[in-house]
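Reopening: structure tokens for the 3-hydroxypyruvic acid complex, inputs below.
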Amino acid sequence: AANRLQKALKSGKPSFGGWQMLPGSNLSRAIARTPNIDWICVDCEHGDISDDQMHQSVAAIAACGVSPVVRVADGQHWMIKRALDAGAHGIIVPLLQTVEDAKNVVKFSKFPPQGNRGLGSPFAMEKFAEQVENPKEISLQQYYKEANSSIVVIVQIETASALDQIKDIAAVPGIDVCFIGPVDLGNSIGHPAESIGQYPLKLEEAIETVHQATQAAGKWTAIFTAGGESAKAYGDRGFNMVNTMTDVAAIRTTFGQAMEVARK
Ligand code: 3PY
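Re-run output (same inputs, fresh job):
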């Protein structure tokens, strides 16, 4: 059975989501009420979100029928474990460097025999309620059987090293999505983005290289962006998973517009 994000990815149509950087399960619910939103990334890398707040947000998002995806601070075993044990439908690992890193992400994300994830969280399985016919019947063993094939494993391609190794990274079994972080990728290759959506040619080329290599490996491509128009443009270009907005950007934009109108 597939979770909402995985179903959306398998549908062949672009899957659009949002990005939560501020803490709070009510904020998670507010974002989750956005019509047609497939997933929300709870950002524990750059966001102001602690481990317990991440647990609360994952629960709130899943309860709204939206897929909670956690961006962990780093690809360490315990960080991936915490996110998945909270019930995340997917994890995003930032700043991947090598094929070896990608293999470790898969190892840490999967129960044996594919990996070495430990089974024991009593919180993860209820977040998978919509995946089974009778939610009351969900057991730890059922979660164990479903999790390896349901959880979406996402690595960020945003370093020169990962760009060099993209073909081999995308080919790693168990890696589902290669997610481009344009800001870090631009910085790493020496062609920084001016702002989100304003990219020098070399960065545009790098983005396209990652997209093509990922698609050629039969995997899904994702990209961070901000704003409906650029999200639509990436969707039209064949990207499979696209961020549309962050909570902080939404607040600042809306406050800024109100202030501008008021001060006219
Ligand atoms: C990047 O653009 O580097 C990102 O990872 C987006 O948060």
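The mean pLDDT is 95. Residues 201-216 form the longest helix (16 residues). Marking as resolved unless the reporter disagrees.
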